[in-house]
Amino acid sequence: MKKLKCFMVAALLTAALTQFPGLIAAEESPEGREESARTHETVHLKYDKMRPHLNFYYELLIERYEPAMKEEWLMIVQELETLIKKYREMKKEGKLKDKDFHNQDDKWKMKHQDVQEQFLKAVKERNDEAIRAILPDLVTLQKEMNEYLESILKTS
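RE: above sequence
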């Protein structure tokens, strides 16, 4: 039954992620910028709806493969939700712009991409040992993202 649940969550995640519109940069015309802004907003709205699903998916995997990390993961997710709320408040007040957030260093981006590729491969192959091995890296990446977001909020 657990395998079926994990499979269903993975299928839901895959289906949801393929529903995001392509994030292709719009032309530099005013119409292109408006379209880009609408697409950006649409992606954020869809992500807001998907974040609970993704968090639950990761929680299930952690519970299955690395149960000792579950409390830490739940605290990291709670912290992320708080940081996102603060970010949106500051953005609404005009204290932050989207460009302030998208300056994560290239080294972190490469690490993130590498870990996500390893994770995807492990999940596609249903490789229990590889999933177990990559989960600590996923948790570390989320911690680092929280730290980065917190630093942006403090400096603004």
